[in-house]
Design goal:
This protein is an all-beta fold. The protein contains no helices and eleven strands.
Length: about 110
Amino acid sequence: VELVESGGGLVQPGDSLRLSCEDSGSTFSAYNLAWYRQPPGKERVLVASISMSHSTAYTASVKGRFTISRDNRKSTMYLQMNRLTSADTAMYYCYAERGSREFWGQGTQVTVSS
């Protein structure tokens, strides 16, 4: 598994972004996936997760604004982020897990500022 994020950038409050996380391997569908974020000077925290069966979960602060999804045919996970605020500014990381195996991407920066 090798995870590569893309789609980050500088946006204004209220804007939308879609992050992508692509895996170069062939076992993508066998992993539970998640997006984490790490704001400047703070710890990395879970934002949203999606299981192998496509069950999803979100942290309270993004519920109703963010949508996590996966396309196993493309070995890609997405995070659609709407109504962004400055509190969403962070480095966003994708994560894959199966049992004792876990993998991280290198991160993509999201900055929300007027």
